[in-house]
Design a protein that fits this description.
The protein is of the alpha+beta class. Helix content is 45%, strand content 16%. Strand 22 (593-594) and strand 23 (597-598) form a beta hairpin. InterPro entries: DNA/RNA_pol_sf, RT_dom.
């Protein structure tokens, strides 16, 4: 903190600009945001308070003093950590688990339940009961309290060394003899050296384990620097109907979320105007047809071996870990169960029961609107959905039935191809002396408001045969969910709309649902990445651009009404994109509204993770990238003494390089000034990894 003689309130002040560049590069935050020196002629902010971790600051500000023309600046720091309530989880104990004995017991069971039952629900119940009885014998369920793990690199040998060190210190303090102090210091130095070596070895092994996993690398590094993991507990939820009513009990919160999530679709559908617009007017009948084919046991075995054992467990308490271990013994029987479901066009009731986790997005944590539901089904159900997905997706790709302007959840398509297609059109129009207008649409709870009957109709138009449609109808009917919050599971409620988020089939079914959205656009070009939709237009003058955008906005609203989806007019934005000279030379302005609600015009917005500005300078995006890069480079610096050069390089590739690489083809033509800012961080990372000094 101190007086830097650079006015932080004046964006044109050159020293201020240099300071801000330094703050950005070294991930520093300046806390003071009001004048610190006021005279009759000027009011400036020249006294600053800098911190490396803004999250530790509770409050900061300025206090006027009569003894100086400078104000006192101050900051209040957090000194305590709130203690969470005890957390209990139910999990399977593998303490005495023997894989070979488990497989031997599985091989002794009389499994062919499909020969005994023609009802898939009864067949599943019989198979599940037999399987769980064996699993319970080898890996019983236990309710345990989640405790903070001890330091993982402190083994029994080091614990004994720590004990010896402390005992030698007590002896030295008691006797005061030089020899005793020498013995203590030798033991202390040896112990410290062994602790550092063990810690280095532990983190090197962890980083090698997460070599190609940026999420795991971040988690390991945060653990290394002592940064606490994000608190996922939901401590309170305010009731919208009564702001003074706040839920704090976990059981009440879980039931509140369950009711809220299950009613989203119905509430939004009730708000859609009844204009009797037929959704089939936008559809075109496919010339091909699809029916399920029998699932081969080898397909099931292949997927069982690829199961992610870190995934959450469904309501049946059969984890992916257990299924993966049991794969050689159960794959044939599961294939028979899946084929029985296809044969009778019935999706088992229990496979439609989801455990839902509220995941915080952003905003106020006590507002349930700021959470999205992530569903976890039974492991066997997820496996079956993947097999169904593979067949449906292969059919859609073979006959080119997915809209070419849909870039989400498709092979050879990504956010990069979506943005490249969009910006190429803009640059082409700019080169022709035109301006671009773009609508960034935001749909309210799009996944949760999918109408099942409309979706079945769209599946039919895509050539899905009647028999397979009956299977999908069974898949949508009688779906239930229970919400899991802070270790408590809510009651069960029925879900009558939407496609579950977090499941395999959900994204593909949503793509099918909005597949025909582009048919409602007559003047512009619509592009979709799942529910992230933008529509781009071009013209020579504002009046023509406004006419095109207004017309297509009305057409889009009709399509949304027909499909019982809702446009979020608060978050829907529009922007004019073009050269600075061309836009400034035009007379007038562009304004848009829908149903007498003015839409927000912006000069920059984030689209698929890239911040786009109206003149395509990419300056704001580069600033965002630098902010993220600085965090990664700071982690490298803080861990350079613990990790070897090769480990630092792996860390760089996992948490720094992706920010340089992400969509770099889009903003490759940035100015030399912006490129230099990136290069400085690249150089700093290289020096940290190699140990080179600043003369190189």
């Amino acid at each position: 903190m101190g007086d830097v003689n650079a006015n932080m309130l004046n964006i044109l002040d050159v020293p201020r600009g240099h300071l801000c560049d330094i703050f950005q590069t070294y991930q520093l935050s300046q806390l003071i945001d009001e004048p610190t020196r006021t005279t009759s002629e000027s009011s400036t902010l020249i006294d600053i308070f800098i911190t490396t971790n803004k999250e530790t600051i509770v409050h900061s500000g300025v206090y006027p003093l009569s003894i100086s023309d400078h104000c006192l600046i101050y900051a209040v720091r957090k000194i305590g950590i709130s203690k969470n309530k005890p957390k209990f989880i139910t999990t399977r104990s593998f303490k005495h688990f023997n894989e070979e004995k488990f497989k031997t017991d599985l091989s002794k069971v009389d499994w062919p339940v499909t020969d005994m039952f023609d009802d898939v629900d009864k067949a599943w119940d019989n198979w599940k009961d037999k399987f769980i009885s064996i699993v319970d014998n080898h890996a019983p369920l236990r309710t345990i309290r989640v405790r903070n793990k001890p330091v993982p690199w402190i083994n029994n040998t080091i614990k004994f060394q720590l004990y010896q060190r402390d005992m030698l210190k007590k002896i030295a303090k008691r006797t005061g003899k030089p020899d005793d102090w020498t013995n203590y210091k030798k033991a202390r130095n040896k112990t410290n050296s062994d602790v550092i070596t063990a810690k280095r070895r532990y983190y090197q092994n962890k980083l090698n384990e997460f070599k190609d996993d940026s999420k795991g690398t971040w988690k390991t590094l945060n653990s290394l620097i002592g940064k606490p993991s994000k608190n996922t507990e939901i401590n309170e939820i305010k009731i919208p109907s009564n702001v003074n009513d706040t839920l704090t009990n976990a059981c009440d919160i879980s039931n509140h979320f369950n009711k809220y999530f299950s009613q989203i679709g119905a509430k939004l559908a009730a708000e859609v105007p009844d204009y009797n617009v037929d959704p089939t007017k936008y559809l075109k009948k496919a010339n091909s047809s699809f029916a399920f084919v029998e699932i081969e046991p080898e397909e099931v075995l292949k997927l069982l071996k690829k199961l992610d054992i870190s995934k959450a467990t469904g309501l049946d308490n059969i984890s992916n870990k257990i299924l993966k271990i049991a794969a050689p013994c159960i794959y044939g029987h599961l294939a028979s169960l899946f084929n029985l479901s296809i044969k009778h066009n019935v999706f088992p009731i229990e496979w439609k029961s989801a455990k839902v986790f509220p995941i915080f997005k952003s905003g106020e944590r006590s507002d349930s609107n700021n959470y999205r539901p992530i569903s976890v089904l039974l492991g066997v159900s997820t496996l079956f959905e993947r097999l169904v997905y593979n067949q449906i997706y292969a059919y859609l790709m073979k006959f080119d039935l997915i809209n070419s302007r849909q870039f989400g959840f498709r092979s050879l398509h990504s956010t990069v191809t979506a943005l490249l297609d969009l910006t190429n059109q803009w640059y082409y129009n700019i080169d022709r002396g035109m301006i671009n207008g773009v609508l960034f649409l935001d749909l309210k709870k799009a996944f949760d408001t999918v109408d099942h009957n409309i979706l079945l109709t769209k599946l039919s138009f895509l050539g899905i045969c009647d028999k397979t449609l009956h299977w999908f109808k069974s898949y949508f009917t009688d779906r239930t969910q229970q919400c899991y919050v802070n270790g408590y599971l809510s009651g069960k409620v029925q879900v009558k709309s939407g496609v579950p988020q977090g499941l395999v089939l959900g994204p593909l079914l949503f793509l099918i649902y909005i597949n025909d959205l582009t048919t409602s656009v007559n003047h512009g070009t619509a592009r979709m990445y799942a529910d992230d939709t933008n529509v781009s237009f071009s013209a020579c003058v504002f009046s023509e651009l406004q006419r095109q955008m207004k017309k297509d906005l009305e057409h889009l609203e009709s399509w949304l009404i027909a499909n019982k989806l809702t446009l979020n007019t608060v978050k829907t934005e529009y922007m004019v994109v073009g050269s600075k000279q061309r836009i400034n030379s035009l007379v007038g302005d562009l304004t848009l509204s829908l149903n007498d609600i003015s839409l927000r015009k912006v000069k920059s917005t984030k689209c698929l993770g890239v911040t786009i500005d109206e003149f395509l300078t990419w300056a704001e995006h580069i600033d965002n990238v630098i902010e993220k890069l600085a965090i990664g480079v700071s982690l490298l610096r803080r861990n350079r003494k613990v990790l070897k050069k090769c480990d630092l390089m792996n860390v760089y590739r996992a948490i720094v390089e992706p920010y340089f690489d992400y969509c770099c083809i889009i903003w490759d033509g940035i100015s030399d000034y912006l490129a230099l800012k990136l290069q400085k961080l690249q150089n700093r990372a290289a020096r940290i990894i190699t140990g080179a000094d600043y003369s190189r």
